[in-house]
Amino acid sequence: MRPCDEPGELLFSYGTLQLERAQLESFGRLLDGEDDAMPGYHRMMVEITDPEVLRKSGERFHPIVALSGDQSDEVAGKVFRVTAAELAAADRYEVSDYKRVVVRLKSGRQAWVYIQA
């Protein structure tokens, strides 16, 4: 069985949640992901000032995505299978610039993702 076919929640990451450091700090384990993409979105950068998020990611600027209105736009990333507790940990990791929504990925799967609030 492939990781994204197992029970749990699908979480799409186009940014720092793909980093080993952020995964270990947030989830206590490395996630096994599959390549996918989000059609209709474009990527920008946002400055992070939350000291705990800076410590976990080691990055001052994080990517953020917003709806572009153009289905030919897409943001590449990875889709991970996470538990409900890990999804809650991801909620704590993301700052108020982000909100979690469900999107349909290029593969046709639906996944949680953090987009511009």
In words, what does this structure look like?
With 117 residues, the protein is of the alpha+beta class. The chain has a single domain, classed as Hypothetical upf0131 protein ytfp. Helices cover 21% and strands 42% of the residues. It has three helices and seven strands. The termini are far apart. 32% of the residues are buried. The model has no long low-confidence stretch (mean pLDDT 92).
How do you describe this structure in short?
The chain is of the alpha+beta class and 117 residues long. Helix content is 21%, strand content 42%.
What is the topology?
Elements: E1 9-13, H1 20-27, E2 33-39, E3 41-47, H2 51-57, E4 61-67, E5 74-82, H3 84-93, E6 98-104, E7 110-116
CATH fold category name: Hypothetical upf0131 protein ytfp
How large, in whole angstroms, is the Cα Rg? 13 Å
Spatial order of the strands forming the largest sheet: 1-5-2
* Strand content range: 35-45%
Order of helices and strands: EHEEHEEHEE
